[in-house]
Specification:
two-stranded antiparallel sheet; Nucleotidyltransferase, domain 5; 3 domains; 5-stranded mixed sheet; 11% strand; alpha/beta
């Protein structure tokens, strides 16, 4: 016998008498019922009126998305380097043709394609700890007068206008030797290339820039840097200007990071999110270059959409920003008017030869090797 079965039988016998009685009789029946079963009067009234005891309808909207999607969305998000939901929404149609999972049926595929960025965000709400690195930029005072300031109001309509910056992998100690990362990004398409340097000397930066330029799918027209001495020197001026089609050099204002915002942004998304803030010894620069060139950059340039700022408006104490639709640098490059159809066709062939999940798997294996070697180098047990 169930615990409440005698009480339920009593309610059934008493309910018709209670409903057909006058107020005085109801009061007597209610008092007797409350004393018998030790109930509150309001609760007893609901039981005798038939308002309690049945299945209560669940509040809120009807569940639309299958609970199994949590695992699949999380796997995709991890593979996409945990990008923001708006970028992920644009990346899902690109990645799904390569996604293989025995439990991922067509219904789940239909649902994940229908999910909005807000729904993805509810699935992927994670805390993020922000760590800051050290700035080691040293101003080149003399060369400031040879390199003009960049025109921040100029509208970019062609690919090839680059922004560049360096990042120090020094940890919390700037003494001794450590690796630097050079970041170069196209201001129109967001196409980004990275290279690791064993030092910040002009010749090392020139060689790294030459490697980047050979890997670009377009010709470099101009380059914008900060006032650091690694860029503003005779070696770099000769490299960019002594050629049949000189590259225009420009610089940002000292201590104004927003003048070179595109490169500064990529310092986090393309350098820090990959290698973190650890101190890295120069003997690991070759492995870093392999990771950048063969895994990290192709993953970002072909398969991870980016959003670009369209307008910025101040409303009182707040700033309202408007961004365009998320697109991958490869998709933006196909819209560039100065890129030839031949180069676009070659890029399309290259993309079809790539698989984002294979790139991600190879990247994780290389990073696992890298951080094991990094740990050994700190203990003085490695000689690469």
């Amino acid at each position: 016998m169930k615990p409440n079965e005698p009480r339920n039988e009593h309610i059934k016998r008493l309910r018709d008498r209670y409903r057909g009685s006058d107020k005085r009789k109801k009061t007597m029946l209610l008092t007797e019922f409350c004393l018998t079963w030790n109930l509150e009067r309001k609760h007893a009234i609901k039981l005798l009126n038939g308002l309690r005891g049945g299945m209560k309808k669940k509040a809120g909207r009807k569940v639309y998305y299958d609970a199994r999607l949590v695992r699949h969305v999380t796997v995709l998000w991890d593979s996409m380097e945990r990008i923001c939901p708006k970028r992920m929404k644009a990346a899902v149609p690109i990645w799904l043709p390569f996604y293989r999972d025995p439990e991922f049926d067509p219904n789940l595929k239909f649902q994940i394609l229908k999910m909005s960025a807000s729904t993805l965000e509810r699935f992927l709400n994670r805390g993020r700890k922000v760590i800051k690195g050290l700035s080691l930029t040293r101003r080149a005072k003399f060369f400031r007068y040879k390199i003009p300031l960049v025109n921040t109001n100029e509208k970019i309509i062609n690919a090839g206008h680059m922004a560049a910056d360096t990042v120090a992998h020094c940890g919390d100690d700037i003494s001794g030797s450590f690796v630097w990362s050079l970041t170069a990004t196209d201001r129109l398409t967001g196409w980004t290339e990275n290279r690791a340097l064993v030092n910040k000397k002009a010749k090392s930066v020139r060689n790294a820039m030459n490697s980047i330029e050979r890997n670009l799918p377009f010709s470099m027209k101009s380059i914008q840097t900060d006032c650091g001495s690694e860029f503003l020197n005779y070696v770099m001026m000769k490299y960019f200007q002594h050629r049949p089609a000189p590259v225009i050099m420009s610089r940002s204002r000292p201590y104004q990071k927003n003048d070179n915002a595109l490169a500064e942004q990529k310092n986090f998304t393309h350098v820090r999110e990959c290698f973190g803030y650890e101190r890295i010894n120069p003997e690991l620069a070759a492995l870093m270059n392999e990771i950048y060139r063969d895994y990290w950059n192709p993953l970002h340039n072909f398969f991870l959409p980016q959003m670009q700022l369209i307008s910025k408006e101040r409303i009182g104490s707040r700033i309202k920003k408007k961004h365009d639709f998320p697109r991958t640098p490869h998709e933006r490059l196909k819209l560039a008017p100065n890129v030839s159809e031949e180069r676009k066709a070659k890029l399309e062939i290259r993309m079809k030869s790539l698989n984002p999940f294979v790139l991600k798997q190879g990247l994780e294996q290389k990073l696992d090797l890298f951080f094991r070697l990094l740990k050994q180098s700190k203990n003085g047990k490695i000689a690469v």
